[in-house]
Amino acid sequence: MSRRSAARDADFTAFMEQAGPALLRTAWLLTGDHHRAQELTQAALVKTYVAWPRVREGEALAYARRVLVNHRTDVWRATRRELVTDIPPDTTPDTRPDTSRRDAVRTSDDRDLVVRLLRTLPEQQRTVVVLRYYTDLSEQATAEVLGISVGAVKSAGSRGLAALRSALATAEALDGAAGGSETLADRTPPTTRPTTPPTQTPTDAGRSAR
User: Fold this and answer.
1) Contact criterion met (CB below 8 Å) for 108 and 196
2) What is the mean pLDDT of residues 56-64?
3) Closest by CA position to 27, among listed 48, 12, 43, 11
4) What is the 3-state secondary structure (H, E, C) of the chain?
């Protein structure tokens, strides 16, 4: 391996370790399925590795995120059939006290509800909501990732949030009718973003791309 190739691999490995968890969380919110999120993240990292010599310094995360979203859209169009997992990506044994365990179960339930509600949105609305309100991208940055206008981002984001609020109200009403004493809104401040699952940094993308 040449010195240049070794330096390239080292740079990419450092990027992968830093950006991998964030990409995986985004992929999980977009797909609602742990295994598909892993596959989507790996595919995005492989494509980013192949294009690494052309990726400008400081723009690697934006490039990888754009690849991830585009690949997700391509897969969705090809399959048009998706499965939402009931199990978030967390395999750590639970050894916490009962109170902490109950809080963790409640958080897991909330997290599952958020993903399920996101999955009810049309593809573009879901992607805009995730990028704008989860990854904190600006309207301009979201528009660049998706290749649409800022106006389209505003429209999709507004409709997506309205649909989520409506679906959340319906879900909480049903929960209340079933005897639930607390709602997700009671437990989550209005400015709090969806809780995300513990992540696993992809480790095989660099090797797979070589």
Assistant:
1) no
2) 91
3) 43
4) CCHHHHHHHHHHHHHHHHHHHHHHHHHHHHHCCHHHHHHHHHHHHHHHHHCHHHCCCCCHHHHHHHHHHHHHHHHHHHHCCCCCCCCCCCCCCCCCCHHHHHHHHHHHHHHHHHHHHHHCCCHHHHHHHHHHHCCCCCHHHHHHHHCCCHHHHHHHHHHHHHHHHHHHHHHHHHHHHCCCCCCHHHHCCCCCCCCCCCCCCCCCHHHHHC
pTM: predicted TM-score of the whole model, two decimal places: 0.66
pLDDT tens, position by position, 125-143: 999 999 998 888 999 999 9
- Compute the average pLDDT of residues 79-108: 46
* Band of residue 81 on the pLDDT scale cut at 50, 70, 90: low
Q: Is the dihedral of CA 122, 123, 127, 130 positive or negative?
A: positive
